[in-house]
Design brief:
- With 294 residues, this protein is α+β, with helices and mostly antiparallel strands.
- The protein has 3 domains: 80 residues, Uridine Diphospho-n-acetylenolpyruvylglucosamine Reductase, domain 2 (2-Layer Sandwich); 119 residues, Uridine Diphospho-n-acetylenolpyruvylglucosamine Reductase, domain 3, CATH 3.30.465.10; 64 residues, Uridine Diphospho-n-acetylenolpyruvylglucosamine Reductase, domain 1, CATH 3.90.78.10.
- Helices cover 28% and strands 24% of the residues.
- The chain contains 8 helices and 19 strands.
- The longest helix is centred in the last third of the chain and has 19 residues.
- The radius of gyration is 20 Å and the shape is globular.
- The chain binds flavin-adenine dinucleotide.
- Flavin-adenine dinucleotide binds next to strand 4, helix 4, strand 10 and strand 14.
Length: 294
């Protein structure tokens, strides 16, 4: 795309955007350079318009939620980012419909108010519904796929409802990882319950997370292989506390890399590769990243 000015002035006129867009303040690990532009559609119509324009103009783009599982490049991302923050309505009916930009906390606040249980395991995960549907986020043995009745997507120029069975869900995996689909929202199967019960369960899930490291991170870097939790393997390989630049393997939980200040994405990638090599050398186990590279 050479004619970004025309894109802003004509096709996407009036839609909130920042150009260029700096990554470190927005992504949870606080690394990276910048993107050509980031757009913040306020509603579904704006989001769909942007996707259509980007596809027509062959602009590279990436849809992002809260950027808590994405490592951006250090240089320039030569494309557009499309943040779902503006899509934040929640509807309560037979199922609970939440748009892609709804944060887990907002969803759970609404569930407490309206008396719906089942999503409490999302407490403390800093995700959007779109990000959770894409990543099949989970905690305490429960996953997004356990509560998803269907996912609303924009694919090949059409809005479609995909039943859970069509979403290819498995451990930290979805069909969306392999194809170019924009997630618009999800219908969740949540039972009725007293608000106090929902609040109590949410507090239990939050309490179970209190020993997780604080600081800027992307949560767990690697998926847990069948052999053992990734954190145990990394710890067993003696890697806790290992540092590359400003990026450090957490002393509290070895599957977390913390940006202690000034880390570049290259520092994080170098640490990721060091971990993979060391764990393979010691245990013959190939760790696979959970995080996504932009
Ligand atoms: C402190 C911390 C703790 C964490 N704890 C957990 C945990 O307990 N369990 C867990 O599973 N994860 C955890 N995570 C990781 C992360 O929060 C989850 O993976 C979450 O689902 C990502 O949501 P997000 O909105 O931030 O998505 P992003 O990071 O913005 O995006 C993640 C991926 O989803 C895609 N995506 C996002 N929205 C859309 C959309 N609308 N349409 C199409 N594609 C989309 C993006 O392109 C990207 O590839 C943690 C992260 C942090 C920083």
């Amino acid at each position: 795309m050479n004619d970004w000015d025309r894109l802003f002035a004509e096709d996407c006129a009036g839609i909130a955007h920042e150009a260029p867009f700096s990554f470190p303040s927005r992504c949870s690990i606080g690394c990276g350079g910048s993107a050509r532009a980031a757009f913040f559609p306020e509603n579904l119509a704006e989001l769909l318009l942007l996707v259509d324009v980007f596809r027509r103009e062959e602009v590279k783009f990436s849809v992002l939620g809260n950027m808590t599982n994405v490592l951006p490049p250090d240089g320039m991302y030569d494309g557009a980012l499309l943040f779902t923050d503006g899509l934040k309505s929640i509807g309560f009916g037979k199922t609970v419909f939440a748009m892609a930009g709804v944060r887990a906390k907002a969803l759970l606040d609404a569930c407490v108010r309206r008396g719906r249980t089942g999503a409490e395991f999302l407490a403390g995960i800093p995700c959007s519904v779109g990000g959770a549907a894409f990543m099949n986020a989970g905690a305490g043995g429960r996953y997004f796929s356990d509560i998803a009745e269907s996912v609303l997507v924009y694919r090949e120029g059409r809005i479609r409802v995909l039943a859970r069975e069509e979403c290819g869900y498995a451990y930290k995996k979805s069909v969306f990882m392999a194809e170019n689909t924009v997630i618009l929202g999800a219908s969740l199967l949540l039972d009725r319950a007293a608000g106090e019960t929902v609040e109590r369960k949410r507090a239990e899930y939050l309490a179970a997370r209190r020993n997780l490291p604080s600081g800027r991170s992307m949560g767990c870097i690697f998926k847990n292989p069948p052999e053992a939790p990734a954190g145990k393997l990394i710890e067993g390989a003696g890697l806790k506390g290992l540092r590359v630049g400003g990026a450090v393997i957490s002393e509290k939980h070895a599957n977390f890399i913390i940006n202690e200040g000034g880390a570049t994405s290259a520092d994080v990638r170098a640490l990721v590769n060091l971990i993979k090599n060391a764990v393979f050398a010691q245990y013959g186990v190939e760790l696979e990243e959970e995080i996504r590279y932009l």
